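User: Show me a protein chain along with its predicted structure.
Assistant: Here is one chain, sequence first, then structure tokens.
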Amino acid sequence: MTARSIPAPAILARPDRRRFLARLARLAGSAATAAALLPLLPAGTRAAMVAEDDDRLIIEKASYQSEGITIWGYLARPKGAGRLPAAVVAHANLTQTDFVKDAARRLALEGFLALAPDPLSIFGGTPTTPAHEAIQNDMWRAQETVHALAYYKSAVPYLAAHAGSNGKVGMVGFGVGGGMAEQVAAGDVGLAAAVSYYGEALWAGKVKDLTAPLLLHYAGLDARIDAGIGAFTKALVADGKPYELHMYAGVDHGFAEDTDDHYDAATSDLAWSRTVAFLKRHLGE
């Protein structure tokens, strides 16, 4: 399917993270104070790590079919690149947020063809302002997770066949999106690697269906999610499924997302470096 270019935004794009922190440091008096203040800022005021208008990237609006529905996605890739390893990106609330689009841009700068699908395409797309969050939640409840799983699974063959792809596709998910990445890896759609950030553990009975290696990032303070790790890893070992697991002490659910109150920059950076290395190892550069 042919991707379509997104028109130039009518408003200025948010600044990239480096420029944002530099300005905050000038206002706060030091870089250390700026870093301490960042988690206290409302999510909407925090800067993207890679600017929307970064001239190293090509950003497109792409679409594909799933269950007879047109699903729209935010597609990012580096300029001048040939055929690249591809990755599907899923955010915690399974909507196309600023964070998930930023994650796609970050992956693109690492040399990936990255797609952040919008599971709320059936409703016209994810609401674009904080004032619409309640509507977004109602839309998501109406959507049901089972449909979103189908939409993410359909994104895999779409990316595998994309002219800019090398045919290998991975998936990165955060929170609910992390659990979704595990389910897609067990969905027999040809996923080559899956990365789950504090995602709910895959049901032990489904572990046997995994066809892709897993990279699992967990937060030490995330009691609800961590409660499922034991049975999950036991099943992974019993079924001989390849996986890597990292438990990050002292951080909570959402530590990797700079729009979350639990964001921890140092831990996020470490987990991200492991994510990129894992995807490159399994998808090819």
